[in-house]
Fold:
Amino acid sequence: MEARQGTHGSRAPTRPRTERDLRAERAAALARRGVAVAEADAGLDHLVCACGSERYGLPLTAVAQVLPMRPPTPMPGAVPALIGLIALSGRIVGVLGLARALGRPDPAGEAAHLVVLRGSATPQPLALAVNRVLGIAPAATASGSADPDGLGNAAASGYAPGAAGAGRPDFVTVDLPRLLRRALP
Structure:
């Protein structure tokens, strides 16, 4: 007698997925997500900001506006990166020092600009204090990955070499979600 083939074809029975399998799949997905963020940021235009002598690129899609710096009201007991609060269009906005949030020393000189982040970039209204905004770097300049596996906690996700003849400076790209997770509890 011939064995009948079911509607699904002849397949070997699969074993049920164990908790260990599920954890391994989840870990692999999280590792891929970090790489995907770095690769996605590499294809975006970046707002290049200076903090002292260092330059950082923020994904332009996460930037709502750039404003002149205004004095923030200090928050006693706040996380070190939060330099204070400002009122902006009828709402309270937290101001993070970009250098502090990245774990860098405070740059010499006063911050001259606030980079207000879009609501989709953060659940609470936030702005980043920088020494100055240098301009926008085209997407083609951002490349590389400082953390190719996406497993570290560093907020720098890549490096964009400058083009001397075009007047574009080199800069480090910032992974905003990772930066905000590190800077805000």
User: Anything to note?
Assistant: The beta strands are 46-51, 54-59, 63-68, 82-88, 91-97, 113-117, 126-130, 132-137, 156-160, 171-174. Helices lie at 19-42, 98-101, 176-183.
